[in-house]
Amino acid sequence: MYSLLSGLWKYLFSKNEYFILILGLDGAGKTTLLEQIKTKYTKVPGLPPHKIIPTVGLNIAKTQYEEIKLTYWDLGGQSQLRSIWNKYFTDVHAVIYVVDSNDKERFTESKDELESIVCDPKLKGVPLLLFFNKQDLPDSESIEFLTSVFKSVINNQSLSSSEDGTTISRNVQLQSLIASKGEGISEGIKWLADNLRKNARTIEKTDY
Ligand SMILES: Nc1nc2c(ncn2[C@@H]2O[C@H](COP(=O)(O)OP(=O)(O)OP(=O)(O)O)[C@@H](O)[C@H]2O)c(=O)[nH]1
Ligand SMILES: [Mg+2]
């Protein structure tokens, strides 16, 4: 009886809580985004951009968005840190991937990393919000251009195959972002929240 009640409690309690992983190359603006998310959706303002240093561990933000709880995990993007990204894949409901729209030399590298993320079977069907950041910089590439660059990954992976051979659709959204000014965040998070409410996968593990 106790286990039944505690299971029900856990189910009710965890139903409206979702975990979101923020990934992307080093310097893309992930932590800047996370700190702006804190400013927008918590009572404690996030750090200003000039106080943010490169991430080596994990930054976390717990937020309330309307009736749901969204917890964000921001990982370091330096190449030697990317090997731990997939340790988090089984526990997330959505992925945010941040691209530096000004870092033209590394678009291919960024695209390759995104490809390995979306190809991972542990993330089958998980919604993907792709932020094209630093749209304030005059030399940044346009959303149209970036869409054409990243299109092959998105098109191949908007449908992802599961282990049993069935096909599971993945919802993908592309969004312009100026993380340092908080522009584009509300639109992206609204899309994510709408998706999570409708389609979130069930994750067994709920103790963090
Ligand atoms: N101009 C401009 N600069 C930005 C923007 N977002 C972030 N930056 C700058 O980009 C640099 C890297 O930002 P971070 O947020 O530390 O990047 P990160 O993706 O967390 O990097 P790692 O932690 O190393 O993976 C910092 O100098 C930020 O101020 C933006 O929208 N516009
Ligand atoms: Mg960081």
TrEMBL record:
A biological-process GO annotation: intracellular protein transport
Species whose genome carries this gene: Dictyostelium purpureum (Slime mold)
Protein name per Swiss-Prot or TrEMBL: Arfrp1, ARF-like GTPase
Pfam families recorded: Arf (PF00025)
Cited InterPro entries: P-loop_NTPase, Small_GTP-bd, Small_GTPase_ARF, Small_GTPase_ARF/SAR
Source organism, top-level taxon: Eukaryota
Protein family membership: Belongs to the small GTPase superfamily. Arf family.
Molecular function GO terms recorded: GTP binding; GTPase activity; metal ion binding
Cellular component annotations (GO), alphabetically ordered: Golgi apparatus
Residues annotated for Mg(2+) binding in this entry: 31, 55
Keywords linked to the UniProt accession: GTP-binding, Magnesium, Metal-binding, Nucleotide-binding
Residues the record lists as binding GTP: 24-31, 77, 133-136
